[in-house]
Input
Amino acid sequence: MLDWDQATMMPEGGAAARAGQLSTLEVIRHEMLCSQEMADLLSLAEDDNQHLDEWQTANLVRMRRAWRNASALPADLVEALSKSASHCEVTWRSARARNDFAALAPELEGLLRLTREAASARAAVMGCSPYDALLDQFDSGASTESLDGLFGELEEFLPSFLPQVIEYQKSQPARIHPAGPFPIAAQRQVALGLMEDLGFDFSHGRLDVSHHPFSGGTPDDARITTRYSESEFIQGLMAVLHETGHASYECGLPRTWRNQPVGRARGMIIHESQSLIIEMQACRSRDFAHYLTPKLAAAFGADPAWTPGNLQRLFQHVEADLIRVHANEVTYPLHVLLRYRLERAMISGDLAIKDLPGAWNDGMDKLLGVTPPTDADGCMQDVHWAAGLFGYFPTYTLGALAAAQFYAAAMQALPELRQSLSKGDFRPLMGWLRENVHQWGCRFSGDELLRRATNAPLGTAAFKAHLKARYLPDQNGMNP
Amino acid sequence: MLDWDQATMMPEGGAAARAGQLSTLEVIRHEMLCSQEMADLLSLAEDDNQHLDEWQTANLVRMRRAWRNASALPADLVEALSKSASHCEVTWRSARARNDFAALAPELEGLLRLTREAASARAAVMGCSPYDALLDQFDSGASTESLDGLFGELEEFLPSFLPQVIEYQKSQPARIHPAGPFPIAAQRQVALGLMEDLGFDFSHGRLDVSHHPFSGGTPDDARITTRYSESEFIQGLMAVLHETGHASYECGLPRTWRNQPVGRARGMIIHESQSLIIEMQACRSRDFAHYLTPKLAAAFGADPAWTPGNLQRLFQHVEADLIRVHANEVTYPLHVLLRYRLERAMISGDLAIKDLPGAWNDGMDKLLGVTPPTDADGCMQDVHWAAGLFGYFPTYTLGALAAAQFYAAAMQALPELRQSLSKGDFRPLMGWLRENVHQWGCRFSGDELLRRATNAPLGTAAFKAHLKARYLPDQNGMNP
Output
């Protein structure tokens, strides 16, 4: 709630005090978790586990994991990391604004050093590589081994697929951009209506505005945000749909296990899959464009852009882009692949901060065929590293793979799915997600969850099939 | 911040989870404060205090007090009290709406029993009476002995003063009520402008809406609220001025001692004095009415009500009222006196809950000459007792006495004060308050603070002189 408030409500001058409040809570949490009493209770429960049912057992495993993650790091390293990340993020904001990588580099070097130290400490306890220990923070189950396999398959497919899509789209009718302006009150009304369609319960949640959209709060009080521009409505709208997907997951977590570790979301991969199912799979589809077209006309007034076909072209437009957050389904994994490789090299010590801009630009050229004109549009575009988040980026793409895989299974299980989306009826899809994903919390691993719902572990097949069908329909017979 | 969010932003369905969050934090706080480590550290500091300066000494006294207050109660009583108060407050809401005292009585009896138990436990540690132990929670320094003296003087004065004022006001021009409606956006604009006049720093604070106005947040991030009605603007406006007075105190607390006990506000008596100086002493005055008149005309359009004299009559209107929160400066202490007597009798065991409605109505008749038509307008009108707040009411009136006393001293020290208010310039007044009150935090007792600023301990003389001058000007030569 303090994070939500900071991003939505807090006056600027409250920042320093808020950083202190958050770090105080973090230290108290760390101390409680690492106390001897906690260690004794966990051992006692593990020694006397013969009467635990499967949920209780899974709960105990999550507790031990939280304890292990916390107690792997000495308190002074936790504090040093938190402070370094706070300072580095502040420096990043101004350095990016001035396109001054040299100003960021020393801070980022310090933060990387602490991050490597923490990764090694975790790795020693977990018996894995330092980078795997970082991955584990965001999703237990992700590993370099599985990532290398999945990213390898994507790298074989995407760089040649991308120019085909761009070429194909040139043969299609040109996109018509609606003239606008799009009054913010009208955008908000459309967003609220779609959230209701998605089953969002406004007695247990809110929609607000922040600089970067996010989903926060708790399962009983979900707080999502978006940002509006009067000249462009798609980004704000898609952010609402994306974040509502995240919030629906949180709200569907098992009530019986509320506030228990096993009752939490499975990890960032499954979490991202839930947002991408709603935004990418369902809402950028032709079926949903049919539902949305008259709503946009009613909200913003007549415009030749309001046809289902044109909306679909706007929602599915692909180009080789520079900026991850503006990327499309086809290029997004390449943006992530670049970051995955670079951050692995930084953690292993193979890439020094001073060499990051060059390595970034080389990678962009190789993967996407574009070269950032500035570091601000290059290796400084994301806050993640400057905020100490190493090992987070891969969850975006693994989430996209999981989304395609879940969605394909839902399509198979629900023959009426496309028809229902064209009427704005999300109940069949949401019901399937509740039953197959949300209600299980952390009861199963991500792979088990996928196997139970889709009969396969996480792979690239469904994602590639989805991209082919959507973006090269002439060869693949459909354009959902 | 969670309290602020609950009152301003939280969706209804978040209430149960929020109650759990707040009580979890409360229990953690209680455990940290009562730990053996804390007791040892306090003793160590007290034994080795020869190098402490006066601020540090005062800080240590506040720490010991917080420790003593917390450790006087066993954890299970803290939890039982918190739960009983939560339930009783919920019951109160519906019982008051249905005017059903019988539905409230059993819950209130249970809560009173726990409150008496806690009061006795505190009293045993503090060496005072149970009711004094309750008073001490809200303002260390308040005692039955001093309250009996002050309320005795008020009871000698007010019941005969009140009819004189009512009689006098009948001889004055009738009040003209502005026609309205008063658009909420316009009310908010006026409020924001006045907050700026008062020096409120919007980079360190916000104005929002809640059912009951309050001042919350922190000194670096002040959150005040009001509520608006389209048909009446005075209550919402005065609430903003009142809460801005509270917030100015918080924001003026000594920065060097931020987050230390001695850097906190002195207690509820001094706190209330700061809000009443702004609302009652300064802003319901004739001088301020001069400043406000053209602003209201600009905000709400022409109306014969917009003259300084009429505004002053609206702001200073006195009648024998039933409801404390709508009371005026003259009747308010009588409302408080009634509650003070009744809660003392409840805590001592002399008044049973079942006899409360009768005792209330008798007291209202005796003190104000009115009889509540219902218990909802009588002993169920305030949330305090149902929320477990016994010993809080007296701080309202002691705050009003302190406000009059501080203000008289400020008037004497600042010959330009009235002139500056008529121009909406609060800098002289606010500067005096910063210097004489805000910057001292808890360095001095309330009485010391008053003595230093006004050369006298807390008394009724300044308050009575203020009432006479404002409400019976023909006999007293002025009507500020």
